[in-house]
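Many introductory courses stop at the sequence. We go one step further.
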Amino acid sequence: MSEDVKRAIGAKYDLPDALSDRLVGETAEELDADARSLARLTHTPESLSGGLDPHDEHDDFDPVEAMYRHRAASRASLQF
């Protein structure tokens, strides 16, 4: 297939020209399937935060204090 066809199919999936030129297939359907696969690998989801927000209002977290609380709780659970 010509580079113009590959680039048109790649553009449909927002692939850069460098990736569009690498599409593999004998037919337009095969090129489309290849472009769709590449798009799934190259495009990131809308949010990667995992629920954490660096702009959260909880600025009072002290990691050292959290460690001490965790150790104290662990020791208390080990006592019989």
